[in-house]
Amino acid sequence: MEATVLDEAELRTFLAERYPRLVAGVALIAGSSAAAEDAVQEALARAWERSDRGEHFDSLAAWVTRVAVNLSKSRLRRLRAEGRARDRIVHAARAAPLDLEVRLDIEHALAALPRRQREVTVLRYYLGLDVDETAATLEVSAGTVKTCLFRARRALATALGETDPEETNDHAELR
Amino acid sequence: MPNFDDLLTRELERAARPAAPDLGHVEKEVRRRRARRGVVRRVQTGALTVAVLAATAGGFLVLEDAFRGGGTIPAQGPLNGDIVFVREAGHPFEVLVAPIDGSSSRVLVADGFEPAVSPDGTQVAMILGGERARTLAVVPLAGGEPRAITPDRVGAVDPSWSPDGSLIAYVRFGHDESRIWTIRPDGSRDQSLDIRGFADIVSPTWSPDGERLAFSASRSPENPLPTWDLFMYDLASEELKNLTTSPEIGETAVAWSPDGSTLAFERRQGDGPGEIWTMTPEGSGARRLATGDPTLFGPTWAPDGTALLASDGDSVLYVDPDTGSLTKLFAGREPSWQPLPDASLAPDPSEEPSSEGRDIGLDFRICNVETLGGIDFIGGGPAGRAWTGVPVTGDGRCPQSSFGKVIVAVDHTGDGLADSWWGPIEGCDFCRPLGATDLDVDGIDEIVVQNGFSIADHWIFRVPLDEGAAPQVEPILVAPPGHEPAGLPAGEPLVLGVGGDAGYSGYLRCETYPESPILVYTWIFAEVDANSDQEVHETRLSLGDDGRFHVVDTNDFTVPRGNDIPLELSTARACGVDWRLFP
């Protein structure tokens, strides 16, 4: 994999190709799209700063994702304290009538997960990272990712009223 | 039955619904954040390339035409770093940084003078010029914006760092009287010494043990040269002693050697040339070291004490301390030589990345070290120190990411080694010890740790001196009932967010300080890109005798969007600490 730096051209490419989806993913983890935008923008600024200092990234996207996910954590406590306000952001500003129920279901289910399970779920099923990429992004082992995914899937299946076929086979290899 | 993976992916896709942001606005925001992080692009230049950035702060230039030879350039020595000096660039004076061979240099500050490098070699105190003339400021030697630490145009001159870096002595120059002041590098505890009756004072310089100040001064309002003498002031006893009393000779610009044995100073008689002399701190054994042609100014010592620097007004000169021979280094004056850490002594953490971390006296090494000195943990003087950093991993290497791993460590005994630590600090990433202040007015400092984020979170730590237990640094918690709407739940460490982004903004100010300090914290939320009200939560906090922050009162209300918040919100400095990010 060719190492990259974040310069003006790379920033524009990143913004056009990856930014909206990464913000949406971090928002699912953090529970706030505003906080997610904040975190992703800050991560990009830090990547740019590091590039200025001559650093290269094996995977710019993975680095920005990891830092943005991490940065969003420091906001969680405050966002929880501002629960009423956050609820308004999530449930009113972004809601559309047709699929409100579905969205609230999955958001509530996600919000009920432990932080780590929420992260691996979003990275795996929304941002499309495989187990190894998810592990590298979160700086945990692949085994941890698989364990978290298993528990998250089970909890989400329960919350969504679905049956996770792999729950019946605990030894199934998660992709 | 649909695959559950596909179901999850589909549900998340429907829930996420990525917006279509204004990418031009986002790009602008990323640029703004990058600039705010104080990034200075360092352009690597080879030796003797063309100078193109002479007037650009942070840029490099080469002293190609400034180097004048005049002798062999001496070896720099392992404890001597770069030289910070001043050069006139049109009307303003630039502060530059260069190695001793002058092979390259960079502009540190575009309009400043009288630089003094901190004992740890990372900061430079200086006097600003231009619109902020005679204001004392501190700037990282690595580059950045100078941070004023005194009120503007206060008449500051001649900064000098205390040996432990906890204080800066400087002179406030007045029309009728000049006085020596000391101030912490963060701008707190700005206070004058009780040294009176001098029309002008120059070059206060600390003894290596930090107990005395030598300086040159004149009691004459016209302060002609012969009226200048050298003085010694004992900080504990406040005793003032004349070191020289010669009626026909002026002695100025004194500098104390690192080993404490010698004072070097400027000496002039009549219209004769300026000379560099040395003598003992007791005033005996005076001898001429060097004579300039036509004159010499301002001796200053190399950090390892093996040489001096001076100036003839045009060039920075290397002065051999044994023979007095002079070697021109490069164009400039007012040199100050950067100390480098002595690897053979107790650990001296730096910000430089290291794959193995640094030993600060704990059972493990730590990485990404930030440090703050001048803290009084025991009520016995500002000899303590605080660090933040990340412990090495099990294989003894620095972890790739510092998030969630940052600890705080303190040296409360003043021996230079950490005595206790606490952590990891939840949510801490780019953390540093920001400042020290006595919030409960018990004569013992608390320390503030800042996380460098767009909203900068601040934790406050203390070292309780309970009898029968070893002092351990710990975060100060919020006493019940706390103030949940402001993010201050009871029983958790107090975390104060200052700054603004993503609809949130936090402010801090101080009331009735120093008699009875009250931190007034205002936390405001307004939904981004909507017409919702602004939710305002004001909390007054006081640090009690039980070592916890107590909510004195709260004030929660909403203000329609677009209306001003009817509260006094923020000042940069509150209760002795400058809480801003990159102030």
Low-confidence runs of chain B: 38-70, 343-353
Radius of gyration of chain A: 17 Å
Strand content of chain B: 35-45%
**How much helix, percentage-wise, in residues of chain A?**
over 70%
- Provide the domain count of chain B: 3
- Give the class of chain A from helix and strand content and strand pairing: mainly alpha
- SSE string of chain A, helix = H, strand = E? HHHHHHHHH
CATH class division of the largest domain in chain B? Mainly Beta
Stretches of chain A where pLDDT is under 50 for at least 5 consecutive residues are: 76-103, 167-175
Amino-to-carboxy terminus distance of chain A: 22 Å
Question: What percentage of the residues of chain A does DSSP assign to strands (E)?
Answer: under 5%
Number of helices of chain B: 2
Q: Between the first and last Cα atoms of chain B, what is the distance in angstroms?
A: 59 Å
Task: Describe this protein with a few key phrases.
heterodimer; A: 175 residues; mainly alpha; Arc Repressor Mutant, subunit A; 2 domains; 9 helices; 0% strand; globular; B: 583 residues; mainly beta; Neuraminidase; 3 domains; five-stranded antiparallel beta sheet; 2 helices; 5% helix; elongated
Describe this structure in words.
The complex is a heterodimer of chains A (175) and B (583). Chain A folds into two domains: 94 residues, no CATH class; 79 residues, Winged helix-like DNA-binding domain superfamily/Winged helix DNA-binding domain (Arc Repressor Mutant, subunit A). Chain A has nine helices and no strands. The longest helix of chain A has 22 residues. With 583 residues, chain B is mostly beta strands. Chain B has two helices and 42 strands. In chain B, the strands form ten sheets. In chain B, strands 30, 31, 32, 33, 36, 37, 38, 39 and 40 form a nine-stranded antiparallel β-sheet that branches. The radius of gyration of chain B is 27 Å and the shape is elongated. At the A-B interface, α1, α2, α3, α4 and α5 of A face α1, α2, β35 and β36 of B.
